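User: Hey, my collaborator sent me this sequence without any context and asked if I could get a structure. I don't really work with proteins. Can you help?
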Amino acid sequence: MTEGTNRRRTAYWGNLIIEETREEREARKRAEAIWHKYRPAVDLALDEFLATGEWPDLERFRRKLAQRDLNDLNPEEMLRYMPRPSWERNTAAPDRIILSLQALQGLPEAEALLGVCLAMVQKAYELYISDTDGVDQLCSGDPALLSAAGGNAGLLLHARRVLEQHPPSPLGGGETGPEPTTWSRWLHQAVMPAFRDITTIQDYLNAQTKIINKDWLYSMPRHSSLMGAATQAASPATTVTSADLFVIMPFGQAWSDGTYAFIRRAVNKLEISQQAHLYRADEITTPGQISEQVKDAITSARVVIADITGVNPNVMWELGYADGLGKAIVILNQNTESSPFDMQDRRQVTYRASPTDADETNLVRHLEAALRAADKTDSG
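Assistant: No problem. I've predicted the 3D structure and written it out in structure-token form, which is a compact way to encode the shape of the chain:
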């Protein structure tokens, strides 16, 4: 502690080591005492989650507490004092009792669950740096993950839900099979570099904090680098100094994640001399108003890639915003015949629901043209 101050370095609930004043230290101790008071309710919430795979509904949870003669425990107060990510602001009224990773880290009963979470993060990074083509999804059938879960597919599903419950996470969108325990998730490419050398849950929490604080640089590995030589491109590769490529598209359609992977494969074939960042709105990790963040992303993008399949209203508005800014735009559409009247004279990249190599090559060509157009705009 520095002489003449009342600051002292301490660790709190799995967060990074911080400096705190005497007042902050006293407030932390009060919060810890309240959290300790709620340990029976915390254990009950974890038991419910491990048994069902769902965090308990708030009102149902109240009844559970009453059944155990724990009426003096107020769930809202418990959540208010629950350790959580420093950047998360829990302002909305909760409808479920969801324990944060910081809270779970202090529970011996959660050790197996967190061990599987850790194995998933490590496997995701292993896939991310792999040179094997087509390995960009984390799947429930992975032998290493099933082994980490002791063959318990339900525990593996629970761990995935814990990782996804508060971003930034290494997992993006994906698909679920006939059974909830059969699933796949695309890797969250934009943040994967931060999850290198994760050996403990504390490492994972620290990496999340670094991502939120932007205390790291995007650096892509060999297999997905935008700095490598272009391959199979239909025309000579374009070289630019940097590029943000922002994708606007629906997220909830069955084809959404497959199309996003198709776009990513095409972008990986471009030759970019320095750094590049391909992302979409659900990969923005900074807290804030989503609509403003989308506008900022469009404004800063070198190229905007817009998929207007199905004529989603939000996509069309965002496309109009990008067009008004004079951005270089690549428009994708699975069915150009369904285009609105005022879009029918715009050049659109048609592709199949299951994109072919020819579709990929065609998209590479249009992306190169868009990057050249962006270069001319910047130099003009």
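In plain terms: The chain has 13 helices and ten strands. You can pass these tokens on to your collaborator as they are.
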